[in-house]
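User: Okay, second chain of the day. Same drill as before: sequence in, structure tokens out.
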Amino acid sequence: MAPEDRRAALIAATVPLLRAHGTAVSTRQIAEAAGVAEGTIFGVFPDKASLLRAALMRAFDSQPAVDALAAIDLRLELRARLREAVTMLRAGMEANANLMAAPRELLADGVEFREQLMNDRYRIIAGLAALVGPDRDRLRRSPQATAQLLLMLIAVSVHRGFGQGGEFGDMDDEEIVSVLLDGLLVRSFPTPSTESFS
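Assistant: Same drill. Structure tokens below.
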């Protein structure tokens, strides 16, 4: 196997283990999952931390999400499009939720990692904006702003610590879309009368 192929295979085997066990995952577990001898890892990566860094970068890579957003049929009704997007993005965020606590020392080049996260966030927002674009005339905010709001709602539903006592942790995909498009009112209130009383 070519070195680049072996590197890719080791990273691919490490990502699910990192999600399941965090940085406590052992090189033995990784080697078993990849179907190689443990020493093979150190023929490709100088140390365990280097492999975990590469796996973290892969876990947070937005390309699969960007591709999935682009594949959503724009002929679907707006709510259906957004439900598909929310379901997919939440699954990705939930899979990576415990990786947000990766030790800082693991990310020796934290700047590169933060830049990737920010770049990936912009790419996902652009994908969501394209998804709501056909309905821009029905929205009070731009597709870009709508996409940012949607991503924020998804994030607070996954990262429960954002809300007081995890207030948003019970939101499902349908409610996220409804809160974005309909707001928080559960019923209509009568419009105050404009009649003059004398």
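Residues 3-58 form a domain with the Arc Repressor Mutant, subunit A fold (CATH 1.10.10.60).

User: Thanks, on to the next one.
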